[in-house]
Every structure is written in structure tokens, then in C-alpha cells.
Specification:
Length: 392
């Protein structure tokens, strides 16, 4: 099919929930994507932080194909090796104790919220179910995670929402104290706010929140749906902050492009979600888990150090271009935000770049770059050249 035919068919038969860029993608190699007509696009998005191994990765495709031929699915009423091995790897590499596998980020966060509320219910009974989240956060699109999201714009249309969320300003202990109370069971946060604009939390603030949570027996819940699986240059962003959260959610990059997510919990929370309290049909799918194992094998410590180096290179080079529309960059590893100066429109900038062969994202008030973690220097340089040509 041509790009136009794909677009027409999509408009006719798929709900219009997404504002799409006018490009159809057919295939990819490394960090370069191609439309059906063969036009190339350097990818600074990785499908919103998903395709960490890029496109056409042989080991990943082989593992998926081998596992699909062997066993494509079996329910969680039985045991499978790929899921058990992936859970083991995640725990051994992070210090967490156990994993629950799900399918998407919002769903993982639902599990994390359920765990926090049940931990508190089991220990203290009813009335201690409130979770403090941060203003400008993003936690998902389910009825509950929309409410966990600390942005008023998401609290619309779908009433009634789930009760039991209060919001505090990021990096302010005073604001957290103002939201505190006897009814609180947990604090939930992204360590780098992603959709909100690529805003890393302060190290000292995160350390202080962890201490406060321990003192008050609140669970610390880290939403690592976007920051997890190597994106920031460590396997998980909490390792940048030298803390071990009670529960961590992950999704996006975990299986390199197949739908998989989950939560990891520490020893204290191991038995909270006992038999019959939580489940999902597709969770721990063996094909997704086999793909996840290839991701873990690829993301060695040396590879992750390289992710940090690539992030630094890209940020330095973008700032060195000194483009009239861009201000400072910020972020961690290959999760990069770029300030858009007053008088310029981030969506127009994104559209122009895409037209010229560079896929980028927007977030909060600026641009957001989430390239595949395997991106090469040549591909980064090609992307930078398109930026210069388009916006210089
Ligand atoms: C931090 C964070 N949490 C949750 C979600 C929701 O994930 P999903 O779209 O897979 O449900 C996202 C998606 O962008 C996210 O960035």
C-alpha cells in the first residue's frame, strides 16, 4: 500500500484518538525508519521510548520467532521459563525482590496503586488509601491513573474518577507536607517527569522523600514507565538517585517493542498481592518475555555508560547549533528535553523536522527526544544536520 492508502484506511476505520503526524512507517533498520515509498527518517523517538534496540535487531527478532514457534501463550495458571528468567534478571540487577508482569504502563501503575492501598489496608485497615502524586506528572489513561496524573487537563469528561489522590509540587518538601495526613499510604512519582516536559527531580528531594516515606510507613512508588530500562543511562532511574523504591512500575522499553509492562516490589511488599487479588490474561507472555531477555542481555553496564555518553553528545551538539528557536537542553541519558523559546511553536517545529526526515516528540512546553538506545554517532549526526538545515 502507498502512504496515502494507509492514511485513508486509517481515517476510515481507526478511532480518531491520536493527532498523527502525516507519515506512514513501513520498516526500519537501526535508528532509521522508512515509509512505503522508501523515504528515510532518523528516529529520535523510538516509538515514545519503546524500541530501545532500534529496528531490525537480529537477536531480538530471532528470540521472538523461536519462542513463538515453541510456545506463544499459556495462562498464568502455569509456569514458563522466559518470564521466570526475566523476573530473576530484573530483581538481581536492581535489588528488588519480585515482579508482576502486565501489558502497558497505565495498567502497571494500576497494579502499583492497588498494591500500595492493600499494603496499608492489611496493616492499618480502612481510611488510609490516599496517594500523593506530583503536579505536572503523567501516570496513564485509565480512570484511576488519569486521576493520579497531577494535571487538571486530564481530569475531564470521564466522571466519576477514582478518589484518593492529592497533589504536591515537585522538589518541594513543604508542598509534600501540606498534602500529608493520616489518610496517606504512599507517594508516587516519576523521577524524571516525561510527558510533563523532561524534568528530572532533584537528588536531595528524592532522598528526603524516601526518608519521609520510611518514617511514616508510606510506600514510595516510582513510575518508571518512561525512565526505566536504560533510558536514563542506568537500568532504572532510581539507581541514579541511590534509592530502592518500595514498588517500581516499568513498561515501554522492557521488551524492545512488544507490549509488556510490570511492577517490581521490595521484600516488604512481596506478599501484599496474594492469590486472587490481581491478575491479567496476557501478563508474562512468553514471547514478550523472550524479547525482554534480549533487551536485558544487550543493556550491559558498558552499554548503559555509552547511553549516558550519547546523551551528553547529543545535548552538547544541539546547544552548539545555537538554533534561534531552541534554548537549553535538559534530561538524563537519552531522555532529552529542549526548551522552545517564546514566539516559536513546538508542534510546528516538530512538523517541519519530520517533513525533512527527523522524527521528534514534544512534551510539556518543549521538545522531547527519546532515540533508540542503539543509535549510532552517524545517525545522531544526520539528525543534527537535519535540525540545522531545517531550523538554522
Ligand atoms: C510515566 C508514564 N506513566 C504511564 C504511562 C502510560 O503508559 P501506557 O501508555 O503504556 O499505558 C506513560 C506513557 O507515556 C508514562 O510516560
Amino acid at each position: 500500500m502507498t502512504s496515502q492508502q494507509i492514511k485513508d484506511l486509517t481515517h476510515q476505520y481507526i478511532m480518531t484518538t491520536y493527532g498523527r503526524f502525516p507519515v506512514a512507517i513501513d520498516h526500519g533498520q537501526g535508528a532509521t525508519l522508512y515509509d512505503p515509498e522508501g523515504n528515510a527518517y532518523i528516529d529520535f523517538t523510538s516509538g515514545i521510548g519503546v524500541t530501545d534496540l532500534g529496528y531490525g535487531n537480529q537477536a531480538w527478532a530471532d528470540a521472538i520467532s523461536a519462542q513463538a514457534k515453541k510456545l506463544g501463550h499459556v495462562s498464568n495458571l502455569f509456569y514458563t521459563e522466559p518470564a521466570a528468567r526475566l523476573a530473576e534478571t530484573l530483581c538481581k540487577r536492581t535489588g528488588e525482590s519480585c515482579v508482576f508482569f502486565a501489558n502497558g504502563g497505565g495498567e502497571a501503575n494500576e497494579g502499583m496503586i492497588k498494591l500500595a492501598r492493600k499494603y496499608s489496608f492489611d496493616k492499618y485497615g480502612k481510611g488510609r488509601a490516599t496517594i500523593i502524586t506530583l503536579n505536572n506528572s503523567f501516570h496513564g489513561r485509565t480512570i484511576t491513573t488519569l486521576m493520579a496524573t497531577g494535571q487538571e487537563v486530564f481530569h475531564n469528561y470521564f466522571f466519576p474518577f477514582t478518589e484518593g489522590f492529592r497533589y504536591a509540587d515537585a522538589n518541594s518538601l513543604e508542598s509534600l507536607e501540606a498534602a500529608a495526613g493520616d489518610d496517606v499510604c504512599a507517594v508516587m512519582m516519576e523521577l524524571v517527569q516525561g510527558e510533563g516536559g523532561v524534568l528530572p527531580l532533584d537528588y536531595e528531594y528524592v532522598q528526603a522523600v524516601k526518608k519521609l516515606c520510611e518514617e511514616r510507613d508510606w510506600l514510595l512508588l516510582a513510575d518508571e514507565v518512561q525512565t526505566g530500562v536504560g533510558r536514563t543511562g542506568k537500568l532504572f532511574a532510581f539507581q541514579q538517585y541511590d534509592i530502592l523504591p518500595d514498588v517500581v512500575s516499568f513498561a515501554k522499553g522492557i521488551a524492545g517493542g512488544l507490549p509488556m509492562s510490570g511492577i517490581m516490589a521490595n521484600e516488604k511488599c512481596r506478599n501484599v498481592l496474594g492469590p486472587g487479588t490481581h491478575a491479567t490474561t496476557f501478563g508474562a507472555n512468553p514471547v514478550c518475555a523472550a524479547a525482554g531477555l534480549v533487551v536485558q542481555e544487550t543493556l550491559t553496564d558498558a552499554f548503559l555508560e555509552d547511553v549516558q555518553a550519547k546523551g551528553t553528545y547529543l545535548r552538547n551538539q544541539i546547544e552548539a547549533l545555537d538554533l534561534p528557536c531552541f534554548g537549553k537542553t535538559r534530561g538524563m541519558g537519552l531522555m532529552i528535553g529542549i526548551e522552545v523559546k517564546d514566539g516559536y511553536n513546538k508542534s510546528e517545529i516538530a512538523n517541519k523536522l519530520i517533513e525533512n526526515g527527523l522524527l521528534v516528540l514534544t512534551a510539556g512546553p518543549g521538545m522531547r527526544l527519546l532515540p533508540p538506545l542503539v543509535i549510532t554517532k552517524e545517525e545522531m549526526d544526520q539528525g543534527l544536520a537535519i535540525m540545522k538545515k531545517t531550523l538554522g
